[in-house]
Amino acid sequence: MEHVRDLTLLPKAHLHLHFTGSMRPSTLLELADKYGVRLPDALTAGEPPSLRATDERGWFRFQRLYDAARSCLREPEDIRRLVREAAEEDVRDGSGWLEIQVDPTSYAPLLGGMIPAVEIILDAVEAASRETGLGMRVLIAANRMKHPLDARTLARLAVRYADRGVVGFGLSNDERRGMARDFDRAFAIAREGGLLAAPHGGELTGPASVRDCLDDLHASRIGHGVRAAEDPRLLKRLADRQITCEVCPASNVALGVYERPEDVPLRTLFEAGVPMALGADDPLLFGSRLAAQYEIARRHHGFTDAELAELARQSVRGSAAPGEVQDKLLAGIDHWLAA
Ligand SMILES: [Zn+2]
């Protein structure tokens, strides 16, 4: 029998993890207790809630659960704890680089405004990085349910903090709402400020939403992007330009984008040469973290250890990590495979 290497020891970069969604379930219960918040039963059941985001009602329910969890983050010490624990979990799963995604607008009211919220988050990231040794940066993400002018304001703010740990600009929430091009100015501001453009696309809607991210927002990475698998020409375009798709298999199955883990088109993207960075998206709601995504590739898609190592390399190359960090992680991947 083939020797099976431990996937938690495979060095990798984690490029798709949302802020509140990274919380440990046990921490959520403790914080809810601290503030006397009555959580929805789906969040206290001790197992991931069953979700279905393939229609707007299902997506709304998912967002409501997310909002309930977020309402338990009220003080700077909660933010510090969340970030430190996210870093600890990532280290445990073999991550050597984490880019965490946050819309500071949602945290601003309880943390004294936008600027304080961003500074508390960035300070927490710096502290967690120092304490755990994990390289960490931040993507600031706009919400496509809000007005494009809000996204512009956020992009300016993100650029202003580029030297304090912000490396990218994202766009999240329901892809069925609004057009990507409504946010083109915000993304232009971010790109001109040196940030990488990493909007969500090709998750809830098809290949056209990925094309919009490329054409209108000049994305250099796509959050999810899996639905590109439905369009061979688009796959070729992503491969030719080496646009990394932040693919989150457990999330896709939890939200009903695909029925079963084996239906997530990991093979299709991989064989087409589209670089991928597997991510956990919202482990709080989907029940699995980073290494588990690689486990899905191994177990349900027959990825060999050499192919899993290549997936890990793609995650590192798609990251905003400095050259020397990338080199170290890539050497670690070779070492893992040689062992
Ligand atoms: Zn996401």
Automatic annotation (TrEMBL):
Adenosine deaminase domain location: 11-336
Q: Which NCBIfam families match?
A: aden_deam, PRK09358.1-5
Q: Which UniProt keywords apply?
A: Hydrolase, Metal-binding, Zinc
Q: Which domain of life is it from?
A: Bacteria
**Record GO biological process:** purine ribonucleoside monophosphate biosynthetic process
Which cofactor does the UniProt annotation name?
A: Zn(2+)
Family, as annotated: Belongs to the metallo-dependent hydrolases superfamily. Adenosine and AMP deaminases family.
Q: Which GO terms describe its molecular function?
A: deaminase activity; hydrolase activity, acting on carbon-nitrogen (but not peptide) bonds, in cyclic amidines; metal ion binding
The cross-references to InterPro entries, in alphabetical order and at most eight, read:
A/AMP_deam_AS (IPR006650), A_deaminase_dom (IPR001365), Ado/ade_deaminase (IPR006330), Metal_Hydrolase (IPR032466)
Q: What is this protein called?
A: Adenine deaminase
- Name a Pfam family for this protein: A_deaminase
